[in-house]
Amino acid sequence: MNKKAIYAVVICALIAGTNGLLIKYVTSMTTGSIAWFRAIIPVLFILPVLSKGGMLHFKGNTKKVLIASTINAARMYLYLIAFIYTSIGNAVVLFYTYPLFVAAIETIHFKVKMKRSQTLFLLLAFVGIVITYLGKPFSFESDDFIGMMAAIGASIGYAITVVIFKSETQNYTKDQLIFFQNIVGAFVFLPFIVTLPEAKIEHLGTGVLYGFLIGIVVFKLFFFGLKHLTAATATSLMYLEVVSAILLGYFILDEKLTWNTLLGGGCIVISSFYISRLMGKKSKAEQVNPEKI
Length: 293
Prior knowledge:
Layout: H1 2-16, H2 19-25, H3 31-52, H4 62-85, H5 88-95, H6 98-108, H7 116-132, H8 143-167, H9 174-188, H10 201-228, H11 231-237, H12 240-252, H13 259-288
Helix pairs in contact: 1-10, 1-12, 2-10, 3-4, 3-9, 3-10, 4-8, 4-9, 5-8, 5-12, 5-13, 6-8, 6-13, 7-13, 11-13
InterPro entries: EamA_dom, EmrE-like
Keywords: Membrane, Transmembrane, Transmembrane helix
Protein name: DMT family transporter
């Protein structure tokens, strides 16, 4: 079963790596309409499942998860802007700084003591961000600047939602969490459907495919893997998304791989990877020794 779980997460990461390609392909659709497909498809898929299973009676802190869903809608929009304005490599590398922000939130808000090694990895990640942006203008007239800032904003937003949803995992099923993750976005981005008649038919089909693959398949595969693997192993395998996204951008879209993207991205990915593993070990220790929580 562990092999199947590993394969599931690997496939999940590879599918997630197509994010940038799908977003850049639907050129006749607005950012808001793409976001609407990303949010509404999971909601429409999950809602009948929840209804049939009698799981529409929520027991957790609904207000808290709705706040997280609102933040996730903003994060989703920034995420799309990141891929539209800058290269896939820049966007995916900077988005994967989110474990660093999760660690920072836990340290500042929850007063979790940060180890020296975590501090050093945070500094390494900051150096990586600086290196990645070397040679690019700090101006809102620069597409790269807009895209890369949006990627960091999306990363911060995702980190906040991870912390909030994590605090409610004992009160909701995985399907309920997927539902709440997307429900606010499904309504917030609804006005953008007025732009859909202007989109090409093939792009509309890709929008549906995007919402299904990224909003449902990716999460289902990841949750299946997480059920049979440790959190540290599952999240570590997800870093294949960075590699697959960069390679797809290079081979299919002919995006250039600059030295600063590779070097800075390497610093960021290494930092995020090890901080994720340190956080995973900490969570495991807390589960084994609940009196230390």
